[in-house]
Write a structure and sequence with these properties.
Helices cover 67% and strands 10% of the residues. It is mainly alpha-helical. A three-stranded mixed beta sheet has the order 1-2-3.
């Protein structure tokens, strides 16, 4: 079966750290610019960056806790903690980033306030764009490598990957770059027309963008928390792997489920070659379980049971090109 990306946990941590450093600097600069200029779009961007900064802390917690080793009380490990903390981060993005931006934009439409010092706003937006691009480049680089290994395009892999931290950073940084363009357009229109309406609309547009991103992230984390099954390609790989063992005659049932980032739980029913005594069969099953976890870097736990004679065999398509996990 497909191996996880090399040192995926370490690279995910680096991706989040880079995003945290960039967003903290950007948030402080945008806040100062918002106070100086009075721009609604700049206020929205400041709230966006503070929300992203807080989210990176939650994502660092997610990455660390998901890598804890299994114990007696948690034999399947702590991988799903990554989705819990990433869910909190998505909620923060929705409540703070989207909610405050939309609310402030509506208030600005109802009670317009003058804005000035537009040069400060443009300078901060330019610096923010450069820093966001650096953070986005790191997330893009990680996703591109993983997508290549899984034979997917980058956007498809961003949605399907079992690593919620790199998905969140990639989505938030992409939204941040788009948001900066929206904010620039709103502020420029405010300066050229003298009307605060385009600026306020820019704030609302940034909020709507963040809301859409947050809902997508919430849905993906929800799916993994309730039990995201392995992809059809992973199922096919698992069946083929089982059938390579001399002791296995056929496979009649197989369930793959994600336990966390790049971590799978496999349950299968198999028919063994021959008709051996119960004690030998038990030892054979345990040995096969150990071999599966050893042969696959992504299967963390395995339970094998015996098939009944009347159960139909599972078949797999001939492999055109193996598409990986994660």
């Amino acid at each position: 079966m497909a191996a996880p990306p090399t040192d995926s946990g370490g690279e995910s941590t680096l991706t989040v750290v880079v995003a945290f450093a960039a967003n903290a600097l950007i948030a402080a600069a945008k806040t100062v610019a918002a106070v100086i200029t009075g721009s609604a779009s700049m206020v929205a961007e400041a709230m966006h960056s503070w929300a992203d900064t807080g989210n990176e802390i939650l994502l660092l917690v997610a990455n660390r806790r998901a890598r804890k080793s299994p114990d007696d009380a948690h034999p399947l490990g702590f991988g799903r903690e990554a989705y819990i903390w990433s869910l909190f981060a998505a909620l923060g993005l929705f409540a703070v980033g989207a909610g405050v931006s939309i609310t402030h934009g509506i208030q600005e439409l109802a009670h317009p306030q003058p804005a000035g010092d537009f040069g400060v706003a443009y300078t901060v937006l330019g610096i923010a764009f450069v820093l966001e691009a650096i953070s986005f480049r790191q997330a893009f680089k990680q996703l591109r490598g993983e997508a290549h290994d899984a034979h997917r395009d980058i956007l498809e892999h961003a949605l399907l990957t079992s690593d919620p931290t790199v998905r969140a950073v990639f989505a938030e940084d992409a939204a941040a770059l788009v948001g900066l363009v929206i904010a620039f357009t709103g502020i420029l229109a405010h300066q050229l027309t003298g009307s605060p309406v385009p600026d306020a609309i820019g704030s609302i547009a940034v909020g709507v963008l963040l809301g859409v991103i947050a809902i997508v992230l919430l849905d993906r984390n929800r799916r993994f928390l309730v039990g995201e099954p392995g992809t059809p390609e992973l199922r096919a790989q698992a069946i083929r792997q089982l059938l390579t063992y001399d002791e296995v005659e056929r496979v009649t049932y197989l369930r793959l489920e994600f336990l966390g980032p790049h971590q799978l739980y496999l349950v299968a029913s198999i028919d063994l070659v021959g008709d051996h005594a119960e004690s030998r069969v038990a030892h054979t099953l345990r040995a096969l379980e150990d071999r599966l976890t050893t042969d696959s870097a992504v299967v963390r736990d395995v339970v094998l049971t015996l098939s009944t004679p009347e159960e139909p065999s599972l078949t797999v398509r001939s492999p055109s090109r193996a598409r990986g996990d994660e």
